Amino acid sequence: MPVTTSRRYREVLKVFSKHGLSHILEGAGLRHAKNRSTTGIHLRQAFEELGTTFIKFGQILSTRNDLLPEKITSELEKLQTGVPPLPFEDIKAVIEEELGPISTVFTHLDETPLAAASIGQVHKARTTEGKEVAVKVRRPGITDQVELDLKILSRLSHRLVHFPKMEETRQIEDLYYEFSETLRTELNFLKEAEHMETISHNFHSWPKVHIPSIDRKRTTSRVLTMKYMEGLRFAEFSNQHKNDPDFIETRKAIAEFSAEVLLKMVFEDGVFHADIHQGNFLLDENNELIILDFGMIGTIDYHTRQKLMNIALSFSSKDAELLTDALLDITLESGQGAEMDALTTDVKRLISRTSGRALEDIPLGEVLGDLFTILRRYHLRLPPTAALLFKTLIMAEGTGRAIDPGFELQSTLEKQSRHWMKERYRPDHLGKDMWRYTKLWKDIGKETPLMIKRVMRKGMNIGVEPKGWEKIIAHFHIMVNRIAITLLLSSFIIALSLLLSVFRPDEGYQLLSWFLWSLFFLSLILGIYLITSILRSKNKFKNKTR
């Protein structure tokens, strides 16, 4: 029997309540949780219990260190999408619905999956042409479940941001829209096939990077067929070769090369693999890199790439003012905005903590963690893609350390940034920039006289949009509501008092008399409760202003 929206919504609320997370839904917020140290644990457990959509949303939230405390994001990083595999008959049914009878497309299809995840599972097969392939099949019914859960998440995120104390979750509604689009894309295997072909094309001149080719005849939105590629995880490779005399140099080269591959995706191509973990980065028998699973992809535009380069270069040059400007340039202001002098002072402290250490000895995760803390302190938030990228870089550093424990991505990032900065000032790139700016000024020159004419004819209205008044407006609404309830309650009590003073029921109307007296006493109790709550809020306000 299909689950209705209201039933699923009740189930979600029940799970949140079971894990002691009612304060999040009631507006107390993550910052104000009574036991904040365990909020992340309970949030992770609730997401795991609620399934695919909530797990994926938790994974996205884990990238937002600029919005949420580290204790919460570090717990959400533990969310895994691995699930028990579906029966082979269910998988076979999906393949035959999409491609026709199994015997017409594959001569062999392994019943035991190579991998099973929340969206799909992968089986090894052999095509009728004799090629070995990996077949990724979307779980039946998962699309309907995701769409239902997205409706619930939309309702919850909209509810969260309308509470006055939810400072850290103000941007969750915006994050939800980004996430819903990403998840719907991940459900469509044709999109994943496009990602694989795009990134494969970007690495056509890198012979040591291998991305499985797509079998388009056997690929649909629910079935993705690709070349089967086999390799070792970095940790497995380390264990197998730890006694080789040249292993130290080999592992350093592999770790640095894998970092260069990711950085090329980011700074040169603007399309990057956003799920960098050991299961997706493998080494073949020639120590060449195999990249798998392109369901989660990040895209980053040219201007944002330049801003990221500025952050890397200003940090490596230990220039606090430049780093502050670079941070403000890439972030989106919210709330009260940033106090420039105080922000620069905090950035200087960050730089001074690392100034006595060699660049290769500074973990990127440590630097980004400190930067995220500063961003939250000054109510600055990152664009979703930049936040995802920073988290991907931290994951990439961890993946590199699986083969080389001494690997630091910061050193490679700094070297590559300098290389790309030189590329930026090549004559052909400068020519493109000059053409872009010339066109911009030409357009401004055309539009300005027209704008001036319109202003002279019709006049000009200047509007002011107040910011930071959300809490005041919310409290004003509460105050007005209390006044309205007080007036209604007072009128009700007076009306009942007058009625009871003149009403003399006969024996047949005793029940009505009891009913009216019950309403009268209930109204008195509500009045006392209202007075008590007003006094409590008044005391809280006094305490806050001391």
UniProtKB/TrEMBL annotation:
Q: Does the keyword Membrane apply?
A: yes
SUPFAM superfamilies for this protein:
Protein kinase-like (PK-like) (SSF56112)
Taxonomic lineage of the native organism? Bacteria, Bacillati, Bacillota, Bacilli, Bacillales
Q: Which organism is it from?
A: Salimicrobium flavidum
Task: Write the protein's name.
Answer: 2-octaprenylphenol hydroxylase
Q: Which family does it belong to?
A: Belongs to the protein kinase superfamily. ADCK protein kinase family.
Query: Record keywords: Membrane included?
Result: yes
GO molecular-function term, one example from the UniProt record: ATP binding
The record ties this protein, via PANTHER family, to: CHAPERONE-ACTIVITY OF BC1 COMPLEX CABC1 -RELATED (PTHR10566), PROTEIN ACTIVITY OF BC1 COMPLEX KINASE 7, CHLOROPLASTIC (PTHR10566:SF113)
